[in-house]
Design goal:
Layout: H1 9-24, H2 31-55, H3 60-86, H4 94-118, E1 123-132, E2 135-143, H5 151-165, E3 169-173
Parallel strand pairs: 2-3
Antiparallel strand pairs: 1-2
Length: 176
Amino acid sequence: MNSTKKYDLEDRLIEFAIRIMEFVEELPKSRAGNHIASQLIRCGTSPALNYGEVQSSESQKDFIHKMKIILKELRETNICLKIIERKPLIKQSQRLDKIIKECNELISIFVSSIRTAQKPKGRVKKKIIKCAGNFIIMDIVFRIRYSTFNICSLLFVVYQLMLDYGVFRLVITGKI
């Protein structure tokens, strides 16, 4: 049996929330300590709770929106931790450094995930209209999600079609 632990973002967010809750208990019971503890407990546990919402998103747009909410909460948590570190509300500890490091790693994961989800996805719909010998007439319609499109993708599709059908001349009609 493989002893390496499976990477699970949900578990990682839950562990982060637990570490935040334990850390908050170490803060002083002063006016500033209580204020920052209250804020940190809300924003530091929110990403784990909102991740359940992400898993139930109803569309790509909804998914991205909910991921951005988690990212905002993580950034808010990061600011709270920096305030605690700079004030300092507690003595410098390895625990605080580890929580800040984990928060930064989670921020990086969500930034990257959001960027990936926002990338345009071009789909190609192709229909052979007429095929005779080494001559083919083809209708290619590109459905592009965003306004930016890389012409190299079109050329690659045309090249692949020419290889697949052994075509030397290709006439393309349709809309791009």
